[in-house]
Amino acid sequence: MIVHSTNITFLSWEELPNSVHNITVPGWQVSIWQSLILIFIPSVPPIKLDKDACGSSASAWTLASFLGRVAYNYDSRYLLTVNFRADGSSRFAPGHRWGTFPSVSAGWRISGEKFMQPLQDIVTDLGSYVPDGV
Is the whole-model pTM more than 0.70? Predict the structure, then answer.
């Protein structure tokens, strides 16, 4: 069996200096797996050649995955994250080889609002978070 694996990870981020806008790209990852399986079964005993007693088989397949995320926040109070994942396999039928799995989440850091300042000694960090995805 021959297995080949490739993982590529891109890590980068960007913050806008002196701004209330923050954009973060924590990473994109690409994974590719390939396999080749060769099997040969000789006849037993080796002296007699019988076409039904020996055989061979071969199979090859590939898996690929892509993963990425982008996050945005405004003044560390309003948060938005978008994720994307796609998985593919050569073992599935043509036209059905890829699955995509997007997701999104939104958050609100309530403790960062001005109306919460009188309570900051009691409530140090309070937020709300809503995710959705496949």
Answer: no
